[in-house]
Write the structure tokens for this entry.
Amino acid sequence: MEDRDWLAEQFERQRPQLRAVAYRMLGSMSEADDAVQESWLRLNRSDTEAVSNLDGWLTTVVGRVCLDMLRARRARREDYVGSWLPEPVVRAETADDPEHEALMADSVGLALLVVLETLTPAERLAFVLHDMFAVPFEEIAPVVDRTPEAARQLASRARRRVRGAPEPDPDLDRQRELVEAFLAASRAGDFDSLVTVLDPDVVFNADTGGVPPRAREPVVGAEAVAEQVLRRGSRFASYAQHAIVNGGAGLVVELQGRPFAVLGFTTAGNRIVELDLILDPAKLERVSLNP
């Protein structure tokens, strides 16, 4: 019983890291929690006497669980219509309690998660474990059934794809200024001001849950995006509240006390380069701005 108590204590100490790995692998907090729970079950079923590095062992186990989940999900995703976006990690601008801080520790930019979703499951695992959590390729190799050199190549291919993702502006105050300008123009129905705050090649992704007829493909270009925002979103702009979405400035729309939409922004060069609108009710279940 003492050994089991010690294992439980070590697992709880490692849980935040395991959750962070799983969220980066899956882009879903609910699925990440499932993966972490499955890792605990595997730990209980395993003989850990010969494990010299329990933290590393747990990290690779949660990676293996996520790999299996990704492979199963890719088969289901074939019928998904329109853009797929991750489940957002959201907190109120004023929230600073430990629970919110722990939640934000699991966050990673929406734009990066969108790019990670284009990778194969094995590429994603190699990149996440090695580049984000410094797991050696020797430990990654058996998880993806490759040699260490082949695992290195998986991460290298993933890295090239990730380099194509927008490089976000790290200045949160500047992000807030751009989001506020976007919101003001949307509320006023000011097309020209909206175009001014958008990058000429801005991309607008909207995830409605993959179900027609609301589902739609990405919109590209400042004028096309501004037109789409004003035509479909102006009537909701007055309900928008500022929030932190996956570590960056964003907006949450609440209707009748419930989250209706989350809008994440990626900003660079004093312009908005990507907008990610999440409307899928299943991905908004955890969203709350209440302290």
Notes: The chain has two domains: 2-79+112-162, 172-284. Residues 2-79+112-162 form a domain with the Butyryl-CoA Dehydrogenase, subunit A; domain 3 fold (CATH 1.20.140.160). The longest strand covers residues 258-268. The beta strands are 90-92, 198-207, 219-220, 240-245, 248-255, 258-268, 271-278.
